[in-house]
Amino acid sequence: MAQHPAAMAADWLVSAWDQNAGLRTVTPAHSAVGDLAGAWLLDLLGLPGESAVGFTTGATMANFTALAAPRDDVLRRAGWDVARHGLGGGPAVRVVVGAERHDTVDVALRYLGLGAPDVVAVDHQGRVRPDALEESLAEAGPGPAVVVLQAGNIHSGASDPFEETVETAHRHGAWVHVDGAFGLWAAASPAYRHLMRGHEGADSWATDAHKTLNVPYDSGLCVVRDAAALQAAMGVQGAYLLRDEVCQPLDKVPELSRRGRAVPVWAVVRCLGRDGVAELVERLCRHATSLADALRTMPGVTVLNDVVFTQVCATFGSDERTDEVVGRLLADGTTWMTGSTWHGQRVLRISVSNWSTTDEDVERSVEAVRRVATEIA
Ligand SMILES: *Cc1c(COP(=O)(O)O)cnc(C)c1O
């Protein structure tokens, strides 16, 4: 089974109930479940308890939603009302990202009309270099600015050094957003939480429920510390809407009508509990470590990244050989690992994210890699 059974069953119920979960007064039970799941998630992920949590379709939309808040907020602080005047003619919003941010951050910025970001250098694991961030922000001088950091590089699994980078960004008056589609879940594990040190100091975060938490597609989470800033960007006013003063589900994400996306998230967290979520994260990491250890024993294979979380990138001697291995592995069908390019080299990229993967599956995957690597030797 691809998804966690509790999440899948809850998702079926959501379809069967077919409630429009945008307003508290209309679907109070859905809202209560969303509030509870949101509170649990903030606690699990080590995020500030006062934050607003929005249930989006994925991390791309969570990035978009969370970044709409600072777009409006940093411009408001610069005396520009973007809701009224639009972006044209207003002060420029500077967005700074690391060279290895996920492509969907650029997509979100494009949707928001913010254009292409300024890119700062990263280290050998793809982490933003604090000195490069400092230099970039100092050079630009004061003005509306947003810094987008990352928890979980898709090639190395590494996370940005949040303590230093958040402090630097805030000292320069920037809003800090963290794209943590899968990496943010390190915070749910006592064994991996150190990777996130300082992440709670940011202003907004995006993550997925359909990756690490194994909720059926499509399910992402957007978290914004300043709930009013999110509501200002996403809120809907309409005389026909049965709404009161409190922040409604429809004030936190782009959709007005929407399915009860919080229910499967609630179900899987309720089922696993704090320890179960930690155990899930740790199991994925353990599998990644086992895969990397086995790859390192194969002749001609180099694991390129420091395997700190759930990602492994390996080369097989040359780009041609690596591509040949990837092609044969996909044709073989035992395991699903795909090719990518990292630091100028073709790599076999492994991302462990399924709750049901067992030690035996890992062994079979290793054997499949060994088989195809031997075939081409
Ligand atoms: C997967 C991923 C995204 C995009 O998430 P979707 O849920 O596919 O929209 C964004 N950032 C990172 C780091 C990712 O791994």
Written description of the protein model:
With 377 residues, the protein is of the alpha/beta class. It folds into 2 domains: 266 residues, Type I PLP-dependent aspartate aminotransferase-like (Major domain) (Aspartate Aminotransferase, domain 2, 3-Layer(aba) Sandwich); 103 residues, Aspartate Aminotransferase, domain 1, CATH 3.90.1150.170. Helices cover 42% and strands 14% of the residues. A 7-stranded mixed β-sheet has the order 1-7-6-5-4-2-3, sandwiched between helices. A 4-stranded antiparallel β-sheet has the order 8-9-11-10. Helix 2 runs parallel beside helix 9 and helix 10 crosses helix 11. It is globular, with a radius of gyration of 21 Å. 53% of the residues are buried. The mean pLDDT is 95.
Radius of gyration: 21 Å
Counting DSSP E segments of at least 2 residues, the number of strands comes to 11
User: So what's the overall shape?
Assistant: globular
List bound small molecules.
pyridoxal-5'-phosphate
The CATH class of the largest domain turns out to be Alpha Beta
Question: Low-confidence runs (pLDDT<50, min 5 residues)?
Answer: none
Taken in chain order, the helices and strands follow as HHEHHEHEHEHEEEHHEEHEEH
State the CATH superfamily name of the largest domain.
Type I PLP-dependent aspartate aminotransferase-like (Major domain)
CATH architecture of the largest domain: 3-Layer(aba) Sandwich
Gap between N and C termini: 35 Å
